[in-house]
């Protein structure tokens, strides 16, 4: 029987401008993120067969959709590429209506029923999970928390809240120094074993409940951020969503904004600009911005600026940058601030500003801001981000044709990366090698040295 060619898939692949081997390589990378080991051996031949009419099975349609979505920076559905799935993992919006404790337990449990475990594991990061609920959901969230029936005998008070806060602060500082790969499993298990037990307990007052929910939200948010840094993107999205739910139940608008900002950051990095703008705009909506400290306002604003720039909204992006600069300048020593913004400083603002200006085509401005970030950051405390900043700066210099200058900066980045376990740092090393590939046989000693060091580092952390 002759198969009918999949003209829809062929058309979308043509739109990407990628060759079949490049599509296959991108599919493998997304599959690795999602833990879809059965798809990490996809080759050009698989892509050719799918275009010829062979129907990919299992998770392949969803992985392929996410791969193409990132390249085209718009949602690509199974129907658009001729691969309507017999069933999907569900509408992402329904996640908002799952009980928070149930969602937390499902994320951590290895003993949930087979169907639920399959649904939790099978999806790659997808824009379907980024749709936010309507206002009535936010209004009802605190009441839903108050009406939750206790499931454990734990009584939760100040000591339990302080315990969760101490663990979160420890892993936050570890993440900034060593990256999200190292330690995230321990934090995930702590949340599943202890935070879930507290969440199912009883509280002395509504105030105590709200304080605990906010503290739990910050722990779960950090688990998501570490997963994001480890390139475990769907796991990160699920943790972020759960953290937003906890923040909403705590009736803590600035905290919800902080987490939505992280979701926007991730969506921007993964090539979903429209959804990133929606999330970033939600992060500064009403009380999420007005009740935030000046430092946190600056953080929300600069991430929104980059999302706007990536979405082609250049003037709005520039206005958002100026406002973020003003907000950080207004932050004063001694201000009452949440501990979650301890990391955000002039160096952080400069890093995000540089990335925004780069998107806007202002390469000179971007370089100046990257240097400001390098100059003002405490490298020993923020090793991961310092290494990533240097990686971007080297890539910018290489893009401008200054290969030897790029190699000098990349050499500094590789020095800092010793001991850093970060998916984002690893991606910057991959970028080094890709940008150096045209120079490998030109006798440029600096390029050969950096390429060799980068190859060695990738071999150690693979």
Overview of the structural elements:
There is one protein chain. Among the domains are: 7-88; 378-462. The chain is built from 22 helices and 2 strands. The protein has helices spanning 7-16, 20-34, 44-52, 60-72, 100-108, 114-122, 135-146, 158-178, 184-199, 206-229, 233-249, 253-269, 273-283, 287-290, 294-310, 314-330, 346-359, 363-376, 383-399, 403-416, 423-436, 445-461, and strands at 155-156, 202-203. Helix 10 (206-229) packs antiparallel against helix 11 (233-249). The longest helix has 24 residues, at 206-229. It is globular. The chain starts with 6 loop residues before the first helix and ends with a helix. Residues 86-91 and 110-123 have low confidence and may be disordered.
Quick summary:
The protein is 67% helix and 1% strand. The chain is built from 22 helices and two strands.
Radius of gyration: 23 Å
Distance, first to last CA: 43 Å
Tell me the strand order in the biggest sheet: 1-2
Strand content: under 5%
Strands, total number: 2
Poorly predicted sequence stretches spanning 5 or more consecutive residues: 86-91, 110-123
SSE order, one letter for each helix or strand: HHHHHHHEHHEHHHHHHHHHHHHH
Average pLDDT level: 89
| Biggest sheet descriptor | 2 strands, parallel
Going by helix content, strand content and strand pairing, the class is mainly alpha
Q: What oligomeric state do the depicted chains represent?
A: single chain
Shape, please?
Answer: globular
Helix content: 55-70%
The number of helical segments is 22
